[in-house]
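Reviewer 2 asked us to include a model.

Predict the structure of this chain.
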Amino acid sequence: MMTPLLGQLLALVIVIWGIWIILSPVMPRMGSRTGTFNPQGCGCLGRIFSGLFFAFVVPVIWQGISLVGRLYQRSFVVFTEFASGVADWPTYRTSSFKYIGALFAFLGFNGCIVAVFALLTLVLGSISVPGQRPPSEAWFAEGILVSAGVGCCLAARFFFRRMP
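Predicted model (structure tokens):
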């Protein structure tokens, strides 16, 4: 039980150490008087890394985050329209049923996402170690996740059907 945890911690330390080495030319020196980042004090290589980092890496990361957010929002709307049976529910009149339905749809949507990732973890874990099957408690927890997600979707459908 302790060996996989130690291996994961060691891998995390190695990854952090590698990132520290990669970013060390960009990081400000600890002995600087001002304590602020000065790219001229890092040499030619530091200015190149700084330029690449702030011109390409940071915008790509922000665009990736915004793309994932938009995909999540769109998939949530499509999922809610499917689960509730109400087409174009965001344009409906504001009511408590709409907000309660949206809350249950949100919980059901995220519960289904977690259940899918848990199922993938169970299946891939049983495939990666031949002859070893996941414990019955893991399958029980998976069943609880799925039933909670389905229950939240049914509650969302109930509330969306009753909104004016």
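The longest helix spans residues 43-84. The mean pLDDT is 77. We have added this to the supplementary material.
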